[in-house]
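Hi C.,

You asked whether I'd gotten around to modeling the 154-residue construct. I have! Everything is below, sequence then structure, no commentary in between.
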Amino acid sequence: MIETDDVVAITQNVFSTMIQMDAYPISMDACGEPEMEMVGCIQIVGEWCGTVLLKTSVALASTAGSRMFGIDENDVADVERQDSLAELTNMIGGNIKSIVPGPSNLSLPTITKGNDFHVRNFGSIPISETAFQCDEHVFRVVILEKDDTTSLSV
């Protein structure tokens, strides 16, 4: 199954490769909640069904956009923030997909931006949540798994 060490290794590799930044795991207590948040979400469907969430601040999405697209951080617009977060989410999700039972498919990423909101994937339970520090930025990777013991009634 998905181990914390796997999530750490995948996330560190993706951040290092995609945006040339080092990400280090930290305790959840040190993580907190950013005032303005962006969440990348991607679904894995097949033999194993679940969701990968990348929860970060707008500031980290700006830094990622700057590094990914080679533009000054002050010139990063929402579209670059969304694109860079979508690509990071896609890469982490794709690597998670490679370690769960297959065959399976990966959805396109979805990006949400705002503050004081909650993401809920009905019929799923959290199986992993790992906090990271990347320069002055803090972010989390959350893995949800489809829970066959729950059902939705209409």
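If it helps when you're writing up: The CA atoms of residues 23 and 134 lie 5 Å apart.

Thanks,
B.
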